[in-house]
Amino acid sequence: MNPAIEVVGLSYRYPDGTVALDGVDFSIERGSSVALLGPNGAGKSTLLLHLNGLLRGEGIVRILGREMEEATLPWVRRQVGLVFQDPDDQLFMPSLEEDVAFGPRNLGLSEREVEVNVSWALKVVGLTGMAGRCPHHLSFGQKKRAALATVLSMRPEVLILDEPTSNLDPRSKGEVISLIGELKRRGTTILTAIHDVNIVPAIADQVLLLDRKVVEFGPTREVLVKRGLLKGLGLDVPAIADLFISLKDGGQYPGEIPFTRDEALSALAQIVDR
Ligand SMILES: Nc1ncnc2c1ncn2[C@@H]1O[C@H](COP(=O)(O)OP(=O)(O)O)[C@@H](O)[C@H]1O
Ligand SMILES: [Mg+2]
After folding, report:
1. Residue 87 φ then ψ, to 5°
2. 46 Cβ inside 6 Å of ligand 1
3. Is the CB of 181 under 6 A from ligand 1?
4. What residue ranges do the domains of the chain occupy?
């Protein structure tokens, strides 16, 4: 076990008394991609804010083996890139290029390195032609991708995404999904809080179910078939899997539960053959 993120006994109470996290424990291996699922108010955003030290609760957070504390905070912030749900929280410079350059400049990279990282990050999110534009005049989907670029330009080892596909149209959603796949192939450890369970099989090897504490943590295909557990939290099984779970329960389908369209097509062929 070689964890990128380790959380031990993490609890957090907001100043108004709301207990958002209550003894959270988990550990995420380097290079894996994990989806963070839970109902509204489960503490997902609160947890993510702890992973680069924007909030400090009780308990221990370790990043790449080092415990988060005052002394390691600047180091932690170089390793962990956090993309907020609302892109307006991340974009504040007069041009997109300056926003994307802000992080790497702040890390003290040379202007040459800054330039390389900025053009790479803009390219990866598909905004190369927009470098000179004012971020606040971009469309919502472009702003979401711009916010992602401001973090990618620092080339973080660990990437934390808070609802990266929320309010995006299907094409932009597809682009974010392939981007996550691409970053995972490069070895980045990725933790994504996500609302839409249908997207989870495409982006994550493992699922962390949170409801102020960890309810379940395991391989995507094992967690996302637990209909009762998910329903109890107000969550759904992905639509394709849900259909085949019903067929299996009714004795009409004996095989593995499919999660993707292609898997569903071969599962249907098996049913027809029978
Ligand atoms: N700034 C805040 N002050 C007080 N309570 C908060 C604040 N932010 C979030 N909360 C509360 O903490 C709990 C967890 O919120 P959050 O982490 O945003 O959940 P999620 O991201 O899973 O929807 C909720 O009950 C929410 O109302
Ligand atoms: Mg949230």
Report:
1. -60, -25
2. yes
3. no
4. 3-237, 238-274
Does the domain at residues 3-237 carry the CATH identifier 3.40.50.300?
Answer: yes
β-pair type (33-37, 19-29): unpaired
Residues 5-36 pLDDT 10s: 999 999 999 999 999 999 999 999 999 999 99
Q: Is 127 in contact with 96 (CB distance < 8 Å)?
A: yes
Query: What is the distance between the alpha carbons of residues 115 and 105, in angstroms, rounded to a whole number?
Result: 10
Q: Are 196 and 165 in contact (CB under 8 A)?
A: yes
Closest CA to 172 of 134, 140, 204, 194: 140
Which secondary-structure segment (H or E) carries 148? helix 140-152
pTM exceeds cut of 0.90: yes
28-61: pLDDT as tens digits: 999 999 999 999 999 999 999 999 999 999 999 9
Instruction: Decide whether any atom of ligand 1 lies within 6 Å of the 41 Cβ.
Output: yes
CB 181 within 8 Å of CB 203:
yes
